[in-house]
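Title: Prediction job returns without error message
Component: structure pipeline
Severity: low
Priority: P3
Assignee: unassigned

Description:
Job completed but the reporter wants confirmation the result is attached to the right record. Sequence as submitted:
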Amino acid sequence: MSPIRTAATVIGVAVAVARHPMVRAAVRAAPLLITPKMRAAATEATLETAFRAGALARKIARR
């Protein structure tokens, strides 16, 4: 299967999933289900990932 055809298939599946009523309901309900502990964990994970990406960029891109 060619890469273009694979990409088109993936996009088609993503659009079909995004239009599903259960997926839409879950996305609408997500802010109500997130607890402060989950929000803090997500924030910590995001900051850690950004720090590691910066450290990797400093190793790759020399001055």
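Comment from assignee: result matches the submitted record. The chain has a mean pLDDT of 90.
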